[in-house]
């Protein structure tokens, strides 16, 4: 029987697959999931529990992106096994293992390439007669129209035989190791087809029957919350639901579900793929090798306490202990007519709650069953909250100009005793849907405002005014310090066109470094604004006058002031007598400096005129000559002019020194001038 070229490789691989066989990994059905803890950081802790007899081998299947987290967090508890082990195929196992076998199938070779890679191996083939020998090589020969065909050369006892592979019907290798490697390579290739899962085998060597548990952390969809609140009545009915997604490949059947809110540190580290370092190649050490040295680990404090606080101990506690004593969420009070959340509604079996360190733990009251790739809404809390309907006005929008409507809001106080995760809130009022709101993480005992609509029956406008006044003068080493108080006035006018009284909260953005002057009190203060509350009567108006004062400072250098400026500041109202007297004396020093400057300027101008006149006389002298009567007259004038210039220079030197003395006296006086 001839095998065509195109079918030779397929037939070979099919034969190998049939002969090798392949065992699919079993699921962890014997060790079902009994507990699931979902964290708000996007990971989940899964606990498997069950009975094992003798040497236990538990295969676990995971998505590839979960393996790093499993290797980082896997915790095993077996009371009898003293040497548990965890085995898995590393990420590059397939390629490296295939390359290490006698038959390299890593590059998806055809039959000709496989045989070429086995040069020297002993082969038995039928073509159609039976031929045995050792492979010499494989070559391709052109047959026609540019097509080629593979030919196998083998060394037989009678010589070298060259056989077209298309003539070969079957072949085998006399070396059993080659056949074993082919079967192993095909097993690896077949098992790698399912790229969506990775198997981790947990081996628990021991004797006897016992209960064991495995726990690990893997990435999961973040669990979400949604709330409902009814604003009617003195106390508002409040419901919370958790939305949970089972996105994995395991069914959750009667699992104990815990939902943890908080913000723990969570990260992924690449523990799954092998890591290789490029090491330097060093020359041989002629002097020999140094003795290896090791150092003991150092610990501080009590060893038992350190062990108890370790991550492994904490995870072990999660696996072994039952849920912490939990406080059951308080139920809503008796329903009133018209309550959307309570009238004819089912009573929720709310989750039990407890603290988990800095986080908060919700433990679902009854076991939960969620099929794989399914989601569910689970009751989280049913209770009452202290709530007040208000209208919240954005002062920033009003101050920007125009008429602005406030938002319909509710002021909530978390009296549930729980730390409530962030989520949307559907608001009902008098039994009807009123709007949607959002709330951030809501710690117990805190107060929050939620907005669910716009209050069109209320509008507001604002007017702005500013003024300033000097509060204090001071002198500090020649600098006049002026303290100014600037007052900002913002007047809000709020109109209620509705038929019911409205409580309005104005959010006023405060001015940086300013202090509140009026009103005397505020209801709340945030990082950027004050909240003021006022009541607006039906069909009425109310005003809110907010005044803030902010200090400002001016520093004026007296060195550069004129004598008139000193006099002007000395006459300013509110300045102290001591500072006034100091400024008046400084004005006298400054006046002396000004007089000295004026004298210098006058002498400089005189000298300039004399020099200009001398230049004119020299030009005339050149024109008339030295020996003429006119020239001799010019010579006399030049001599007289030089004498005058010399006298001006002497006077200028004296005036310069007088100016320097006056300036130094002025500066010395100012530098020692410090007054409050």
What does this structure look like?
This protein has 676 residues and is an alpha+beta fold. It is 26% helix and 39% strand. The chain folds into four domains: 214 residues, no CATH class; 185 residues, no CATH class; 102 residues, Immunoglobulin-like (Sandwich), CATH 2.60.40; 96 residues. The strands form five sheets. Strands 13, 14, 20, 21, 22, 23, 24, 27, 29 and 30 form a ten-stranded mixed sheet that branches. Strands 1, 2, 4, 12, 15, 16, 17, 18 and 19 form a nine-stranded mixed sheet that branches. Strands 9-8-7-6-10 form a five-stranded antiparallel sheet. Helix 9 runs antiparallel to helix 10 and helix 10 runs antiparallel to helix 11. The N and C termini lie far apart (118 Å).
Topology summary:
Elements: H1 5-20, E1 33-39, E2 43-53, E3 56-62, H2 67-73, E4 75-77, E5 85-88, H3 93-100, H4 111-116, E6 122-126, E7 130-144, E8 147-156, E9 159-164, E10 170-173, H5 176-191, E11 198-204, E12 209-219, E13 224-230, E14 235-246, E15 252-261, H6 303-308, H7 311-320, E16 327-328, E17 352-356, E18 359-363, E19 368-370, E20 374-394, H8 395-399, E21 407-413, E22 423-429, E23 432-439, E24 447-454, E25 458-476, E26 479-496, E27 502-509, E28 515-518, E29 524-525, E30 529-536, E31 541-557, H9 563-570, H10 577-624, H11 629-671, E32 674-675
Parallel strand pairs: 1-15, 13-22, 20-27
Antiparallel strand pairs: 1-2, 2-12, 3-11, 4-12, 5-11, 6-7, 6-10, 7-8, 8-9, 13-14, 14-20, 15-18, 15-19, 16-17, 17-18, 20-21, 21-24, 22-23, 25-26, 25-32, 26-31, 27-30, 28-31, 29-30
């Amino acid at each position: 029987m001839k095998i065509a070229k195109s079918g030779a490789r397929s037939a070979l691989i099919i034969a190998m697959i049939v002969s090798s066989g392949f065992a699919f990994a079993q699921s962890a059905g014997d060790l079902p999931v009994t507990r699931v803890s979902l964290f708000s950081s996007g990971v989940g802790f899964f606990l498997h529990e069950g009975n094992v007899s003798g040497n236990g081998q538990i295969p676990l299947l995971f998505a590839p992106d979960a393996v790093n987290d499993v290797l980082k967090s896997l915790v095993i508890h077996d009371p009898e096994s003293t040497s548990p082990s965890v085995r898995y195929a590393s990420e590059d196992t397939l390629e490296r293992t295939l390359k290490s076998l006698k038959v390299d199938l890593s590059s998806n070779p055809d039959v000709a390439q496989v045989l070429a890679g086995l040069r020297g191996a002993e082969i038995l083939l039928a073509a159609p007669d039976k031929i045995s020998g050792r492979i010499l090589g494989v070559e391709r020969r052109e047959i026609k129209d540019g097509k080629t065909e593979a030919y196998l050369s083998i060394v037989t006892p009678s010589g070298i035989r060259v056989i077209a592979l298309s003539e070969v019907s079957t072949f085998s290798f006399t070396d059993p190791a080659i056949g074993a490697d082919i079967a192993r390579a095909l097993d690896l290739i077949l098992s790698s087809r399912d790229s969506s899962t990775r198997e981790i085998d947990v081996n628990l060597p021991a004797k006897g029957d016992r209960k064991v548990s495995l726990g690990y952390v893997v990435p999961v969809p973040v669990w979400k919350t949604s709330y409902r609140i009814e604003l009617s009545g003195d106390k508002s009915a409040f419901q919370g639901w958790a939305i949970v997604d089972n996105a994995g490949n395991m069914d959750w059947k009667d699992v104990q579900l815990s939902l943890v809110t908080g913000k723990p540190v969570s990260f992924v580290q690449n523990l799954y793929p092998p890591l290789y370092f490029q090491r330097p190649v060093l020359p041989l050490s002629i002097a020999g090798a140094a003795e290896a040295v090791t150092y003991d680990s150092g610990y501080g404090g009590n060893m038992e306490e350190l062990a108890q606080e370790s991550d492994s101990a904490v995870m072990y506690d999660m696996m072994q202990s039952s849920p912490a004593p939990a406080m059951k969420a308080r139920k809503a009070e008796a329903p009133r007519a018209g309550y959307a959340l309570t009238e004819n509604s089912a009573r929720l079996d709310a989750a039990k709650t407890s603290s988990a360190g800095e986080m908060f733990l919700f433990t679902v009251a009854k076991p939960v069953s969620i099929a794989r790739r399914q989601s569910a809404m689970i009751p989280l809390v049913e209770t009452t909250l202290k709530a007040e309907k208000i209208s919240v006005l954005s002062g920033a929008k009003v101050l920007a100009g125009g008429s602005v409507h406030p938002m319909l809001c509710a002021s909530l106080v978390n009296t549930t005793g729980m730390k409530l995760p962030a989520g949307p809130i559907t608001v009902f009022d008098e039994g009807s849907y009123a709007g949607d709101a959002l709330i951030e993480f809501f710690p117990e005992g805190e107060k929050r405002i939620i907005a669910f609509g716009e209050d069109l029956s209320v509008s507001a406008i604002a007017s702005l005014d500013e003024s300033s006044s000097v509060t204090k003068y001071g002198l500090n080493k020649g600098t006049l310090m002026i303290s100014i108080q600037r007052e900002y006035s913002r007047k809000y006018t709020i109109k209620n066109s509705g038929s019911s009284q409205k409580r309005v909260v104005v959010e006023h953005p405060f001015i940086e470094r300013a202090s509140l002057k009026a009103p005397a009190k505020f209801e709340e203060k945030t990082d950027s604004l004050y909240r003021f509350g006022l009541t607006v009567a039906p069909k009425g108006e109310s005003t809110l006058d907010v005044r803030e004062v902010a200090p400002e400072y001016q520093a004026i250098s007296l060195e550069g002031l004129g004598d008139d400026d000193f006099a002007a500041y000395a006459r300013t109202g509110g300045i102290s007598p001591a500072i006034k007297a100091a400024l008046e004396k400084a004005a006298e020093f400054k006046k002396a400096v000004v007089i000295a400057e004026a004298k210098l300027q006058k002498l400089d101008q005189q000298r300039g005129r004399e020099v200009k006149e001398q230049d004119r006389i020299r030009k005339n002298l050149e024109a008339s000559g030295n020996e003429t009567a006119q020239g001799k007259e010019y010579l006399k004038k030049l001599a007289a002019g030089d004498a005058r210039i010399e006298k001006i220079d002497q006077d200028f030197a004296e005036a310069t020194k007088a100016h320097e003395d006056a300036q130094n006296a002025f500066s010395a006086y100012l530098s020692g001038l410090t007054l409050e």
